Automatic annotation (TrEMBL):
It comes from the Bacteria. InterPro entries: Epimerase_deHydtase (IPR001509), NAD(P)-bd_dom_sf (IPR036291). This is NAD-dependent epimerase/dehydratase family protein. It comes from Streptosporangium longisporum. Residues 6-205 form the NAD-dependent epimerase/dehydratase domain.
Length: 298
């Protein structure tokens, strides 16, 4: 019986591991702490994913290597290159298919929908990191693919909306968001991220190109309104953080310090086109309500 290696125990790593195990597949989940999904088919291993030798040993014999791990958001330039290089080395040495979870930062500002055919054209530090990781992967001897998601929704989703808005909204308190509240934005449910990662890992046609997670397009205001309606919380009290306030907060908080350069995504329409993924793999985005109820812990 083959197994799949999944790196990370954040919201996407947990969802991916759980999806594989629930479908009857063995999973080796690697995290620094050795934590992860408790399931009879999941082997949880404490490992340093930036150690190429260790990762190679743990990946030998696997059907695929799926990476859902990432350094802290404010440490990408310092830590992401070594992490990605170790995974790429392990994939080259073992010959396993290597599936990376990415995002749209490498595209840079785009007029119109984001499609998988767009070139890498980053204008930010974090975008340059993501673009270089993908370019290095394509230039390697490994079989590689990247699944690109928008801002995440779902249980323990690591996203600006969940970090800044979910808790105050559920409590009936004001929420201050670093978005234009009324422009269309794309949101990816962690369950759909997992489905896309697994589908890409299983399909021979997936290699050497990127895939977009089927996502919901809705404004931040509409998203907050739906969240409060579903949970019975008071109607949302929302304010859009002005740019000068974002820059002020950036001087006191390391995560907020990473937000100003990404404002091009949050101040104008961001539509993640997933037509190719839907046509190829046969599924679309799960109902938005499922993601919001899960994110609220209800």
């Amino acid at each position: 019986m083959t197994f799949t290696v999944v790196l990370g125990a954040g919201s996407t790593g947990m969802a991916t591991t759980r999806l594989l195990a629930d479908s009857g597949e063995r999973v080796r989940q690697l995290t620094r702490s050795g934590g992860g999904v408790e399931h009879p088919l999941v082997e949880r291993v404490a490992a340093d994913a930036s150690d190429a030798d260790s990762l190679t040993s743990l990946t030998e014999g696997a059907a695929a290597l799926i990476n859902c791990a990432a350094p802290p958001y404010d440490r990408w330039p310092e830590e992401f290159p070594a992490l990605a290089a170790a995974q790429l080395t392990a994939a080259e040495r073992t010959g396993v298919g290597y599936v990376m979870l990415g995002n749209v930062y490498g595209y840079g500002p785009v007029h119109g929908p984001f499609t998988e055919e767009l070139p890498m054209s980053p204008t930010t530090v974090k975008g340059a990191v993501r673009a270089r990781i993908w370019e290095n992967a394509l230039a390697s001897r490994a079989r590689v693919t990247e699944v690109r998601a928008a801002d995440l929704l779902g249980a323990d989703a690591y996203s600006l909306f969940n970090l800044t808005a979910t808790r105050p909204l559920l409590a009936g308190d004001p929420a201050f968001l670093p978005y234009d509240l009324d422009v269309p934005q794309s949101w990816s449910y962690t369950g759909d991220v997992a489905r896309t990662l697994v589908a890409a890992a299983r399909a021979e046609r997936s290699w050497e190109r990127a895939w977009h997670v089927p996502s919901t397009v809705i404004s931040a205001r509409e998203l907050a309104t739906r969240l409060t309606f579903l949970t019975g919380a008071p109607g949302p009290k929302l304010e859009s953080l002005p740019l000068e306030e974002i820059h002020r907060l950036a001087g006191t908080d390391p995560i907020m310090a990473e937000v100003p350069e990404m404002q091009y995504l949050y101040r104008r329409p961001f539509v993640l086109d997933s037509t190719l993924t839907q046509r190829t793999f046969g599924f679309g985005a799960a109902p938005l309500d499922d993601a919001l109820v899960e994110m609220a812990g209800r």
